[in-house]
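User: Need the bound-state model for beta-D-galactopyranose:
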Amino acid sequence: MSTTKPMKRNKLLLLGAWLLMTTVPAQAADAIVPGAEWLDTEGMVINAHGGGILYHEGIYYWYGEAKGDFTYRSPGVGWDCYRTDAGGVSCYSSRDLCHWTYEGIVLDPDTTHTFSDIHPTMVIERPKVIYNERTRQFVMWMHIDNHNYEKAVAGVAVSDRPTGKFRFIESIRPNGQMSRDMTLFKDDDQQAYLVYSSEGNATLHIASLSDDYLHVTPHYTRHFVGQSREAPAMFKRQGKYYIVTSGCTGWDPNEAQWAVADHVMGPYTVMDNPCRGPHADKTFYAQSTFALPVVGTDQYIIMFDRWNKKDLITSRYVWLPVRFDDGALTIPWTDRWTPATLRW
Ligand code: GAL
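Assistant: Bound-state model below.
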């Protein structure tokens, strides 16, 4: 992160290469400043919302929603349905979690086929990528929806390289069930799971994936039944499985909750709000998207989005390390912190 004057990539590209040549690269500090404007190594604002991170061969890859410049309300939709055109999935790479290099749009929206599930008029949200060691493919799952979020499906795409391009395969309702906010979780035994808000967002499902990660198996479990939890972020530590979720209030912030289990598919014991500090009851005005274990350390980062619903591309990132006290998970606010990648 830096105090250098920010620029939006979409707009900047139009200014021409000569301007890029004269742009002073941002000097990112060796720290993470939650909620600050975050610039990539070219000095442009990172555009990777609802993101997730893959660690592969020493490099972290941050995938996220590439929001368009223009936020509008979906026409004919009664509720607060702010959105931008779907710009596909962006990717940034880093070795230390502080300095991020833009790798481009790794899943392009399909601008040619009007009825494509990844047409810009559709919704492409919360992309997550895992690596399949058997097939040596990078598999992306994401929330796909139509302009009023009634389609409620999970999309899957695949690539031979972490930086794409990813090839979109299909969108499905897992076992016939709705799927909106989602994440992926890959266990130590290589078994992977799709974790998604289902049943009209009332209940969270965890479905195991096929060996190639491209399909959902019939085996799934239901959690937080009727409690309307979404934005799941999941990780494993010392044999226990943790899920952090948000409530269900659209782009507006609400209170987070954590839950813990001895088995990946549950049952999960619901605990309380893990956030501590100013505006903890509103998750620091943010919403969870992913839990990132810092490889080789005991540091776990919860990634949140601080949505700016009327100008979505300017939404910020709030990343905070988790604390464990006698097994209890807390997420204290901190203005600035150093990832373990830079401490060990
Ligand atoms: C939220 C969800 C976001 C986005 C938004 C649209 O509930 O977490 O990812 O889908 O609704 O209103």
